[in-house]
Write a structure and sequence with these properties.
Layout (H helix, E strand, L loop, with lengths): L1 H15 L1 H14 L5 E9 L10 E4 L4 E3 L5 E6 L4 E6 L2 E7 L6 E5 L8 H24 L4 H12 L6 H17 L3 H14 L3 H13 L3 H12 L5 H17 L3 H17 L3 H18 L2 H15 L5 H16 L3 H15 L15 H14 L3 H17 L3 H18 L2 H68 L5 H62 L3 H20 L6 E2 H18 L4 E7 L9 E2 L5 H12 L6 E11 L2 E8 L4 H7 L2 H5 L3 H17 L3 E7 L7 E8 L2
Parallel strand pairs: 1-7, 9-11
Antiparallel strand pairs: 1-4, 2-3, 2-5, 5-6, 8-10, 11-12, 12-14, 13-14
Length: 732
């Protein structure tokens, strides 16, 4: 936190006082004057702009080298050194090393050869490049699109070195990581490493793999990094990253080994808060492993360490330990730690912590109120829940405000204060409505955000490909000029070069074809995200109608019970909403809960039965999330709702053969034809978004992954009554 404030102050000073910035730059240059670095440059003929090879380049009283066939050279130098460029073909050129940037020397036979105007152009471009990156750094946390746009402008500058392109792609990766677009972050970190290998960027790439839930890729990269020469802090980051990845894969023994190595290192470096934080991770790993005694021991050690300092790390350690106490119903210890965390937060600038973070003040007050209510300390609980509500309102944290208001109404109910209970419950319902409206807006904004960011990233990739193509064209033009000069004596070389040119063109065409395929794939991915973003609001809207009907009939207890089960279902739906495929076992759990909720509402309209063949390996098959729900919904709403007597819904999961699973959803309702006839004129005007989205999703997924899903819909009885839907799922 202090580092962020320090950086912000530096940026403000730089903007308000250019003179101070210049003074700081001069002092930095003075400190680095004696530092030896590798100076890169090139020597070109000023008339033909062709590279000049075998040119002598030396530092007065220092290193010596010569240019290669491409006119490039590298030489060890210090700021202030005099660079001497000489050859018998042109007059000697002298150049004073002013900075560490790449230089370009243009020579004219037997004349002064430093092209000052060209040097100035390069320097101006470098200034613009640094300006773009600096601007991107300052705004991307507020506006991702603007930050990406600034980096794309920097990458559009001609003549950037590999190091400069690597810096640009690394910054793009940081931007996408901050905005949780981890797949795009991975792409740009890889491009950065491709231009210039960097251990720091590889560590960032491993973190992006982990955040993208690509745990095995993260582990492989971290293990490769272990074999490199790392700084103590880098080693801590790598070991802790390995521990996190192994926890995610369920390998708690290996994760604990890595965490303990981190704890030893940070303790040796006297980083108390870091040691406390890592101790809590060790406790978490033991807790998930079921080793309660070891977990308790490590949590107690972490609690002792976290009390020694007031930092963000110590706050995180305290909240993690408090969560452990909560799970074990040690409420007094939990409350004491959370109060201490709130006190520490006032020192470490709580307003800079986002609402998504688990350590916010409003979340801690809510959990204290929850713990007090669990002890039947209602008055104290009410005090802290109200604090949580006020803090959440100030920070516009609707999630915490909703939870706190719901819990507050329950406390008043348990306390027996019916008037306060009704008042609190009405306030809770208002916040719930506001929360769902906000959620729909966020879904829409997220869809537009993902589309805009993807479009900008595609432009950047196209720009990088154009640069590579231009470099190929430059090399091609150079080769053609050489061929023209030697055509009378080197016919065989000309023929060979023509063949090479043809091969390059074919490779370019193939690359463009692959680019087109990748673009088509990206469009399909974007379409799937858009369809999924439509499915969730559609499903939420239908389910909320059910809640609304319970409330309308004053059946608050049933509405609360339904809403509780519905929230569990929604959590599962949202967790799977970004995945193209999930295990069939997860989809079965989801459809069981959904069908139970529908039956909960329409007990008198139908009974249901769900059968899973014991021979079916439900973890071996993958299925798109929320694929079955619209078919079950249709069976209930359009099949059995219009039936006079009680209907029967049957869902079966079976294995057709070794590679195919078959899912059958059947009902004995009025049938598709009769259902259409019974619809009102208003209902006939409305189109089913759920079924339309399912058909589009299946079509896109079959195009991307091969024909893995097929659907067959038929009537069960000859009179058109009853409907049967069969889905055939193939293994990946």
């Amino acid at each position: 936190m202090r580092t962020r404030i320090y950086i912000l102050c530096i940026l403000c000073i730089a903007l308000l006082s250019p003179a101070m910035q210049a003074q700081q730059k001069n002092r930095a240059v003075s400190r680095s004057t004696n530092e030896i670095f590798i100076l890169r440059g090139s020597v070109l003929d000023t008339e033909t702009m062709k590279p000049v090879n075998k040119v002598n380049v030396e530092v007065t009283g220092g290193a010596y080298t010569k240019t290669g066939r491409d006119g490039e050279f590298r030489i060890e130098a210090k700021l202030g050194d005099e660079l001497v460029v000489k050859s018998e073909d042109f007059e000697t050129v002298y150049y004073t090393v002013k900075d560490k940037q790449r230089i370009r020397v243009e020579v004219r036979p037997l004349e002064e050869a430093i092209a000052l105007e060209q040097m100035q152009d390069v320097e101006e471009e470098l200034v613009s490049y640094k300006t773009y990156l600096s601007e991107a750094q300052s705004i991307y946390r507020r506006d991702a699109a603007a930050g990406v746009d600034q980096v794309s402008k920097a990458l559009a500058i001609e003549g950037l070195s590999s190091q400069e392109r690597a810096e640009s792609f690394k910054l793009l990766g940081d931007i996408y990581s901050f905005w949780k677009q981890y797949d795009l972050a991975i792409t740009n970190y890889k491009l950065s490493i491709k231009n210039t290998p960097s251990t720091a960027v590889e560590i960032a790439l491993a973190k992006a793999y982990y955040n993208n839930k690509s745990y095995q890729e993260s582990i492989r990269l971290y293990k490769r990094l272990e074999n490199k020469k790392l700084t103590p802090q880098q080693l801590v980051t790598v070991k802790e990253g390995l521990g996190d990845a192994y926890v995610a894969t369920g390998d708690y023994v290996t994760s604990i080994t890595n965490y303990e190595a981190v704890e030893r290192t940070v303790s040796e470096l006297n980083k108390v808060s870091e040691a406390a934080r890592v101790r809590t991770k060790i406790g978490d790993a033991y807790d998930q492993q079921g080793a309660q005694q070891e977990a308790a021991s490590n949590y107690n050690k972490a609690a002792q360490l976290s009390s020694l300092e007031k930092t963000e790390s110590s706050v995180r350690a305290k909240t993690n330990i408090a969560d452990y106490y909560s799970r074990n119903k040690s409420y007094d210890a939990e409350i004491e730690l959370r109060k201490s965390a709130i006190e520490d937060l006032s020192v470490v600038a709580p307003d800079s912590i986002s609402n998504d973070d688990v350590i916010t003040t409003q979340k801690q007050n809510y959990k204290i109120g929850f713990a007090l209510a669990a002890q039947n300390k209602y008055d104290e609980s009410i005090t802290f829940l109200n604090k949580s509500i006020e803090e959440a309102k100030r920070k516009e944290d609707l999630t915490v405000e909703t939870n706190a208001r719901r819990r507050l109404s329950e406390v008043y109910r348990d306390k027996g204060d019916i008037d306060k209970f009704k008042e609190a419950y009405e306030a809770y319902k208002e916040v719930v409505d506001l929360s769902y409206n906000r959620k729909e807006q966020e879904i829409s904004q997220a869809t537009r955000f993902a589309k805009d960011i993807t479009e900008q990233q595609n432009r950047i990739i196209s720009l990088e490909k154009d640069r590579q193509l231009n470099e190929s064209r430059y090399q091609l033009a150079f080769q053609e000029q050489e061929l023209v000069k030697a055509r009378d004596t080197r016919q065989k070389v000309i023929i060979g070069s023509l063949i090479l040119v043809t091969a390059l063109l074919m490779l370019t065409a193939f690359a463009m074809y692959r680019s087109s395929k990748k673009q088509q794939y990206a469009n399909n991915v974007l379409a799937l995200k858009s369809l999924r973003s439509q499915m969730n609001p559609h499903f939420i809207f239908n389910a909320l109608n059910s809640v609304n009907s319970f409330i309308a009939t004053n059946d608050e207890r049933t509405a609360n019970r339904y809403l509780s089960d519905f929230s569990i279902l929604m959590r599962a739906v949202l967790e799977n909403s970004e995945e193209d495929f999930i295990p069939l076992s997860s989809e079965i759990d989801l459809i069981k809960r959904y069908t139970m909720l529908e039956h909960f509402r329409f007990k008198n309209r139908f009974d249901y039965e769900i059968e899973v063949d014991e021979e079916l390996d439900v973890d071996a098959f993958m299925i798109p999330p929320m694929l079955l729900q619209p078919y079950v919904e249709n069976a209930v709403w359009h099949g059995m709702r219009y039936k006079e007597e009680k209907g029967k819904l049957q869902i079966t999961f079976a294995q057709k053969d070794e590679e195919t699973a078959v899912i059958t959803v059947s009902d004995d309702g009025v049938g598709r034809k009769r259902s259409k006839e019974l619809k009102t004129e208003n209902q006939k005007k409305q189109k089913s978004k759920g079924m339309g989205n399912i058909k589009k999703r299946i079509a896109i997924l079959n195009e991307m992954y091969g024909d893995r899903i097929s659907v067959a819909v038929s009537d069960i009885f000859e009179n058109g009554e009853g409907t049967q839907v069969q889905l055939f799922i193939k293994k990946a």
